[in-house]
Structure formats: structure tokens, C-alpha cells
Write a structure and sequence with these properties.
Blueprint (H helix, E strand, L loop, with lengths): L1 H22 L5 H14 L7 E5 L2 H17 L10 E7 L2 E9 L14 E5 L10 E5 L7 H12 L7 E8 L2 E10 L3 H6 L7 E4 L2 H11 L16 E3 L9 H18 L5 H4 L2 H14 L11 E5 L4 E5 L28 H6 L2 H14 L2 H23 L9 H15 L5 E9 L2 E8 L5 E7 L5 E2 L6 E2 L11 E6 L13 E6 L6 E4 L28 E4 L4 E4 L2 E5 L3 E3 L4 E5 L2 E5 L4 E4 L3 E4 L6 E4 L7 E5 L4 E5 L1 E3 L13 E4 L2 E5 L2 E4 L6 E4 L2 E11 L4 E16 L6 E18 L4 E4 L2 E12 L4 E4 L3 E11 L2 E5 L10 E11 L2 E5 L4 E6 L4 E2 L4
Parallel strand pairs: 1-6, 21-24, 22-25, 23-26, 24-27, 25-28, 26-29, 27-30, 28-31, 29-32, 30-33, 31-34, 32-35, 33-36, 34-36, 35-37, 36-37, 37-38, 38-39, 38-40, 39-41, 40-42, 41-43, 42-44, 43-45, 44-46
Antiparallel strand pairs: 1-2, 2-3, 3-4, 4-5, 5-7, 6-7, 8-9, 8-10, 10-11, 12-13, 13-17, 14-15, 14-16, 14-18, 18-19, 20-21, 46-47
Length: 821
């Protein structure tokens, strides 16, 4: 009897446990038992990093009060969670911190595993993070969030540092926690970004709405909308005392407000390729819950003057049924659009999004991900399994989402096409959308197999869910002599907007009639580059020719990707009324020693030249970029480069004292036998490969050469009469060179934040210090300088180390001073 009773109890308990697990979305007890047996022993192969927090009793009581109030209210309010002081120990290093309860919902204060926002009072903080969060791994779905940030970083998107540790609070072991980086300068530096504002749409009023929902109060709350939200900078308290940061935030705000009000398109405001990559990965990871506007974070790049996304809580791991961009594209912007509807109504963004969807949905993409991240993923998983052995990363869900993406892009039929009749040599079709994705009409396939492109419309907007598709007329001009009888079989070639695969569908022979007269939808488009009289486009050769002559450019010349731009002397371009040349294609300009290519601005308003994301090399030879005026459009430098390659040979750059001349970010930049006169900062290069050969910089209004991140080779550099620092090397950048001659009213060489400089044959004559090494900080490490055959003279001293750096100076007289001398 006892055995039977025990058997019944065991079976009943197993059935209850199985039912309970399935109610939580788990496959069941059998799978659970296998996971525990397999993963828990494996977890001891990796010892979790330990982070210890120590707080006084008064501070602990403050946290308890916050937790109890949040549990009673059902939500954590910002004003009810003060910071308290404490100590943090990691890896044997003890530092002072302040911390508070973090989060919005009460999952952050359940049980013993409260969530904390920690701010280190010491440079370096925890693993290079001064601001970070500690929380239950389940608040971000365990390993899903870890993979999310690794994928985003791999795609070049600003991503948070995220991982797992064991947390001790006043000696009590709280088990495995997730750490998550917060928003600050170290986040940008870790992602190779130029310092600029990190910001969001302020969610505080939205959370008033959420609190009303929890209290079961239902009423019209206009303040809860995306259109009502203020734009909020992280670290906003610093804006009042930092004029540069404030100006950059104001520039970012102007762009975002212009976008929200329809004055600028998404392509004009955002780095659309990164935004497209992010949303393709959101689809892959099943993270559609993360697309609430209140959770979106941004970074403003002050060099490229565009906004890029910051990866933040994916809420992923779900199987998708639709795409992030489904049902959104109408072909026009409305101020009533939600944030993501506004994004996806930009043609350029949608094209990039579909292109990345095709890429990430290929099986080989995840094969590569798991091969590259395999060891790191195994280590992260082992730490999680120490406490949660059943929380495996569900790779089957990711594979499922890949299949769904491929299937959704492979539309069975994008639209219905009806023959509307022939007027002279123009054949009309009426097209009625079927799909939730926008389609692009490539052409009408005639009976002889030839293809005729549409005259006006090319894009069919999506069909909104629950509504019939809005009909659109399309017109096709037939070639001379083409015969298209009434019974001729016609087909339309089309594809999802941005897709690499084209499909065909039959045209119905009958007209579309329901008594509704449809007018074509007009899309606002930038002026075609062909509208400029000196621009000749050869589509067959994919070239853009700038015709010789003297030309006035009063409107922006925008050159899309996929071309090579060429101009040869005699060629002079006069940028007036704030015009600029903006190119996503390489530009080749070739002049002669006696007849250079000239680019200037007769009214001193020219916005300059911008080359962004051009995939192949631009080469300029004998080009004279003349004074464009004191400030360009939105404060542009005269020449701005982003993610491209440029070689300048035997060129001259001139500028006004208040204007930067050449700014390059993540570029391969080479200057050979180039002279630069005037301007403010003359050459600024960040996170790229920079090469100077026989470069002369004269009369810089501020700094002559600024290098940050990447590598630089200086082979023959002469700097004369710089009003600021001659060479400023900031951050993790390696500089090697020879034959350096400097005359400066500021410092000669200035190093900071882990810079490394090695130069031979250096002569410095500076009004301030010949060499300044700023104080080493834990987060960046020591700066290092090695000078050989150095002749140094500074009005305030030859060499000054503010502390903690390495220096080896061998003077030309063979006297040497080593570290500390």
C-alpha cells in the first residue's frame, strides 16, 4: 500500500510539474530533466566572475523602502528610487560607487534579485563601464540578450557590453546576474564612435499612461504619444556647462524634430543602413516587442551629421509571424505616423532593410554566427547554467525565423494588374496591392520578350491589414512599331522593394472598374543629379561625368551609390546658397599643375563636399579646394569623409579660420604632397588608416592635425604657425612617422587616453609645451611616446607628463631621457 501510494504521489507530482512547465512555455518535464542533467554539471567548467557590493544598513534600508513601495504600486517610479553610496569589489580592486533600484516594472524587484543601476566613482569602473546595470538574467531573456548585442556589434551597430556574473551583496550570494552597460562616453569609445549625444524620446509621460492602464483607468491621453515626447539626452545635466555638447545635442534635436514633422526624410536624418540592419536582426531574433518608441535609443554622429541606432533590449526569442516592416509602407509620410511607420515609409531605408533581411535569413548566416561566437557563447551559457540550467538558447527559433523571413519575402503574388487600354503609344495598367510589403515594378514584359519600364510610378505600397488594396495607375510608353493586340499576353516583372529576386505575374485582360477614379500617388523625391547641366550620367558604364567648364551649383548635387564620378580640368565648381556635393559613390578629380580643378564659393556659403559609404577609392590630383566661407551648411567641414577611401595628391586646401577643413571617420585617408592653409582644425581623422607623405599645414586657426583611434603613418609633415596644438593624438591610436617639423602657438605634441606615438627626426618649437602627456586613466591605460633625434623647445617646458605615462626621448644631441625623467 505504501509503495502504491508513493507511486501515485510521484506520478501525480511529475504530471503537475509537466503541466506547470508547459504553462510557462517550456516543452515539458522530460526536456527539463535532460537540460538539468546535461547543463548543470557543464556549468562548473567556467567560474563566473564575482562582483561584490557592500552597503551600510542605512543605505540598505533606503533600497528596501524603494522596493516595498514599487511592489505596492505595481510600477517603479523615477522619483522614488534615490541613489545610495557603497563599495564595489571586482578582481581584487575596491572602488566607491553609487547605486539605486532600476527598471520600470516590478519584475526588477521580485524576490531577492533586485535590479541595480551602478555608477562607479572611479575611472575604469567595471570592465571599462562607468555606468552599468545589474539585473536578473530573465529580465532580458537570459542568453537571447547576450546574442543580441554580439550580433548588433558584428553588424557595426552601437551595442552595449552585456554578460553574466555572480553577485554578492553585503556577503550574501545573490546568484547569477546579468550586467548591462548604460549610456555614456565609454559606450561610444568602445564602439569606435566620435563623441556625440546619446538620446531618446523621453518616455516619462508614456509611463504615466502605463500606470493609468495598471490602475484600470481608461481615457484619452494625448501626452502618451510619440509625437508628444520630448527629446531627452543621456547626461543632460552636463549640457548646461558644456557648450560643445549642448550644440551637438541641439543639432541632433533639430534633425529629429525635422524628421518627426516631415521636413526631412529618414534618409536625410538617419544612418539608414545601420537602422535597416538593426530591424532585420529584430526580425531574426523575434524581438518585435522591442519596437516600442519609448525603448528606442540613438547616437548623433557630429561628423557625418546623422543619427544612428543604439542596440537596446531586444525582448527577443519569439517565433515571428510577420516582419517589422510589414504593413507600413504607404509611399508618403504622415505626421500621424508612429516612429516605425515613419522609418519604413522611406524608400532608401526599406530597400536596405530588405537587402539585409535576405542576407540574415540565409542558413549560412547563422552557421557563421555560431561558428564565430561558439566559444564565447559556451562560456556565457555555462555561467547562466550555474543557476538556470534549463535556459538554453533556442537555436530552433532562430532557424524558424529565418525560414519565415524567406517565405515572407517570396511573395506568391504581389498585386493584381489590370489592362486599362492603349492611348496612342502609352499602355495603361491598374495595379491593386495584395501584399503587406511594398513592391517595385521593374517593367512590363511585351509579347516579344522586351521589357518597358514604367513612366512614372515604380513602387506599389503595401495593402493595409483588413482593407482592400488601393488601386494605382501605371503607364508604359511602347517602343515605336510595337504591336500589342488586345488578346496579347502581358506580364509585369516586379519584386519586393529592395529584393534581389524578380518575379513575374500575368496581366488580367479586363479593366479594373468599381466607379472609383484613382489618382497616382506622388512621392517627394530629391532633385535628380541629371537636373544639373554639367552632370552627364552613363547608366551603361555606371559613370557620372562632371563636364569641363565653370559651373555654379546653387542646389545640392546628390550622387547615389553604384557610380564612379569623374571630373577633369578645366573644371571649376562654385558652391553658392549653401549648396554641397554629397556622394555615396567615389569621386575622381584630375587637374594639371598649371590648371587645377577648382572648387570654391563666391558667396562664402558653400557647404562643401561629403563622401559617405563609397565602397571604392576616390582619387584627387591637382585639386584646389578654396575658401568656402566661415561656416557651411549645419556647420560642415569643407571636406567630410565617412567609411570610404580617399587619396589626395598635389592638392591645396584652404579655409576660413573658423571652419574645419578635412574630417574623416572610419576612412582610409592618404595625403601626398598636399598643402593646407588656414581653417580651424585642418585634418581630423578618427578610427581609420591615415597616411601623410610630404604634408604641409600652415596657419591653422586651432589644431593642425587631430588623430583619434586607428593607425597613422606620418612621413614628412611640416606644421607652421598653428594657433592651437600642432598634433593632437587622442585615444587608442598608433602613430608612427619621421621627418616632423612643428612650429605652434599651443602645444607641439599632445597625447591622451592611451595614445601611442613613435617618431624619428622631430623638431618642435611650441609657445606652450613641446610634448604634453595628459594624465593616464584606468579606463584607457597609459599613453606612450618614443622620440628619436628630437629637437624640442617649449615656452612652458619641453616635456610634461601629468602622471602614469611612458616616454622615451632621445634628443638629437644624443642626450636621452627615459621613463620618469
Amino acid at each position: 500500500m505504501v509503495l502504491a501510494a508513493c507511486t501515485v504521489v510521484i506520478i501525480g507530482g511529475a504530471l503537475f510539474a509537466d503541466h506547470f512547465l508547459k504553462s510557462k512555455g517550456h516543452p515539458g518535464l522530460r526536456r527539463f530533466a535532460g537540460q538539468v542533467a546535461r547543463n548543470y554539471p557543464a556549468s562548473f567548467a567556467v567560474e563566473p566572475p564575482v562582483l561584490a557590493l557592500k552597503l551600510g544598513e542605512h543605505e540598505m534600508e533606503t533600497l528596501r523602502t524603494t522596493v516595498e513601495a514599487a511592489r505596492a504600486r505595481g510600477v517603479i517610479l523615477p522619483e522614488g528610487r534615490p541613489y545610495v553610496n557603497g563599495e564595489m569589489e571586482h578582481g581584487g580592486v575596491v572602488s566607491r560607487v553609487k547605486l539605486r533600484i532600476k527598471g520600470k516594472m516590478t519584475d526588477h524587484v521580485e524576490g531577492r534579485k533586485w535590479s541595480f543601476r551602478v555608477v562607479s566613482r572611479k575611472e575604469g569602473g567595471f570592465q571599462g563601464m562607468k555606468r552599468f546595470s545589474l539585473q536578473h538574467p530573465g529580465t532580458r531573456n537570459y542568453l537571447v540578450e547576450w546574442l543580441h548585442h554580439r550580433l548588433m556589434a558584428g553588424e557595426g551597430i552601437v551595442a552595449l557590453r552585456y554578460g553574466f556574473i555572480r553577485l554578492l551583496l553585503n556577503g550574501e550570494d545573490l546568484g547569477i546576474y546579468a550586467y548591462e552597460e548604460h549610456f555614456g562616453p565609454e559606450l561610444l569609445e568602445n564602439n569606435g564612435r566620435v563623441e556625440g549625444p546619446l538620446f531618446r524620446f523621453d518616455p516619462s509621460l508614456f509611463w504615466e499612461h502605463r500606470l493609468n492602464e495598471m490602475r484600470k483607468l481608461r481615457f484619452d491621453e494625448p501626452y502618451a504619444a510619440y509625437q508628444a515626447a520630448a527629446i531627452d539626452a543621456f547626461g543632460s545635466s552636463d549640457l548646461a556647462k558644456d557648450a560643445t555638447a549642448r550644440a551637438r545635442f541641439e543639432a541632433a534635436t533639430a534633425l529629429i524634430e525635422g524628421f518627426r514633422r516631415g521636413r526631412y526624410t529618414a534618409s536625410e536624418v538617419f544612418h539608414v543602413d545601420l537602422l535597416a540592419r538593426r530591424h532585420a536582426l529584430i526580425d531574426l531574433m523575434g524581438g518585435h516587442h522591442s519596437m516600442d518608441w519609448s525603448d528606442v535609443k540613438f547616437h548623433y554622429d557630429p561628423v557625418a551629421q546623422r543619427v544612428e541606432p543604439v542596440a537596446y533590449e531586444i525582448f527577443g526569442g519569439e517565433r515571428i509571424r510577420r516582419l517589422a516592416g510589414s504593413g507600413r509602407y504607404e509611399g508618403r509620410f504622415r505626421t500621424s505616423h508612429d516612429l516605425h511607420d515613419a522609418y519604413f515609409n522611406d524608400e532608401g531605408l526599406f530597400r536596405a532593410y530588405v537587402r539585409h533581411l535576405e542576407r540574415v535569413s540565409r542558413p549560412a548566416y547563422l552557421d557563421s554566427v555560431f561558428q564565430v561566437l561558439g566559444p564565447a557563447l559556451d562560456s556565457a551559457a555555462a555561467i547562466v547554467y550555474r543557476e538556470f540550467p534549463w535556459k538554453e538558447l533556442d537555436r530552433a527559433t532562430l532557424r524558424h525565423n529565418q525560414r519565415i523571413i524567406r517565405r515572407l519575402l517570396d511573395v506568391p503574388k504581389g498585386f493584381h494588374a489590370y489592362r486599362q487600354g492603349l492611348a496612342g503609344d502609352t499602355l495603361g495598367l491598374m495595379i491593386v496591392p495584395v501584399e503587406a510589403l511594398p513592391l517595385e515594378v521593374h517593367g512590363l514584359v511585351l509579347p516579344d520578350g522586351s521589357i518597358v519600364k514604367p513612366l512614372d510610378n515604380t513602387i506599389v505600397p503595401c495593402r493595409k491589414q483588413g482593407r482592400p488594396g488601393d488601386p494605382m495607375p501605371f503607364s508604359f510608353k511602347l517602343p515605336p512599331g510595337a504591336a500589342v493586340p488586345l488578346d496579347a499576353a502581358l506580364r509585369v516583372r516586379y519584386g519586393v522593394l529592395g529584393a534581389s529576386v524578380a518575379k513575374e505575374l500575368e496581366v488580367f485582360p479586363q479593366s479594373w472598374l468599381d466607379g472609383f477614379e484613382s489618382l497616382p500617388m506622388r512621392m517627394e523625391r530629391a532633385a535628380d543629379m541629371r537636373s544639373h547641366p554639367f552632370v552627364v550620367v552613363d547608366e551603361k558604364e555606371s559613370t557620372v561625368l562632371l563636364k569641363p567648364g565653370r559651373w555654379i551649383l546653387a542646389d545640392d548635387l546628390v550622387i547615389p551609390p553604384g557610380y564612379v564620378v569623374r571630373g577633369t580640368a578645366p573644371l571649376e565648381i562654385d558652391l553658392v546658397k549653401g549648396a554641397r556635393i554629397l556622394s555615396a559613390s567615389p569621386i575622381e578629380l584630375t587637374g594639371l599643375p598649371e590648371v587645377p580643378v577648382l572648387i570654391g564659393s563666391s558667396d562664402a556659403s558653400g557647404a562643401g563636399i561629403v563622401i559617405l559609404d563609397a565602397r571604392t577609392e576616390s582619387i584627387w590630383r591637382h585639386v584646389h579646394l578654396r575658401d568656402l566661407g566661415p561656416l557651411g551648411k549645419r556647420g560642415d567641414a569643407s571636406l567630410v569623409l565617412g567609411s570610404t577611401k580617399l587619396v589626395l595628391r598635389e592638392c591645396l586646401l584652404e579655409g576660413a579660420p573658423k571652419r574645419d577643413l578635412l574630417v574623416a571617420v572610419r576612412c582610409d585617408l592618404t595625403l601626398e604632397q598636399v598643402r593646407i592653409e588656414g581653417g580651424r582644425d585642418q585634418v581630423s581623422a578618427a578610427y581609420g588608416l591615415t597616411t601623410f607623405r610630404d604634408l604641409e599645414c600652415v596657419m591653422a586657426g586651432d589644431d593642425a592635425v587631430v588623430l583619434r583611434g586607428g593607425e597613422a603613418t606620418l612621413d614628412g609633415l611640416r606644421i607652421k604657425d598653428a594657433r592651437g596644438d600642432a598634433i593632437k593624438v587622442d585615444g587608442p591610436v598608433r602613430v608612427k612617422g619621421r621627418a616632423i617639423d612643428i612650429v605652434s602657438q599651443g602645444h607641439g605634441l599632445r597625447l591622451s587616453r592611451g595614445a601611442e606615438v613613435e617618431l624619428d627626426a622631430v623638431a618642435v618649437d611650441a609657445a606652450r609645451l613641446a610634448v604634453l602627456l595628459e594624465k593616464a586613466m584606468a579606463r584607457h591605460g597609459a599613453s606612450r611616446i618614443a622620440l628619436r633625434e628630437a629637437r624640442l623647445r617649449g615656452g612652458e617646458g619641453d616635456v610634461e607628463d601629468e602622471g602614469g605615462n611612458d616616454k622615451v626621448i632621445k634628443r638629437s644631441s644624443d642626450k636621452s631621457s627615459g621613463p620618469g625623467k
